[in-house]
Design a protein that fits this description.
The chain is mainly alpha-helical and 62 residues long. It has a domain of 39 residues. The protein is 77% helix and 0% strand. The longest helix is centred in the middle third of the chain and has 19 residues. The radius of gyration is 12 Å and the shape is elongated. The protein starts with 5 loop residues before the first helix and ends with a helix.
Length: 62
């Protein structure tokens, strides 16, 4: 498996964030989870080298 550059990681995180869109969920609990994931992705985009593992682990854990 090839290693990704910081720029490639940022691009993939931004693509994931774009796929989530800005829509809200009908269910309040689901809406909170989606907003939480958006927040994590935004933080990871700022510094993907440090945050990408944490984001992935946090998302999987929930």
């Amino acid at each position: 498996m090839p290693k990704l550059t910081k720029e490639e990681v940022s691009e993939r995180l931004e693509a994931a964030l774009a796929m989530l869109g800005e829509e809200e969920c009908e269910d309040g609990q689901s809406n909170l989870k989606i907003n939480w994931v958006r927040s994590l992705l935004n933080r990871a985009i700022q510094d993907p080298v440090v945050m990408v593992d944490k984001v992935a682990n946090d998302i999987v854990a929930r």
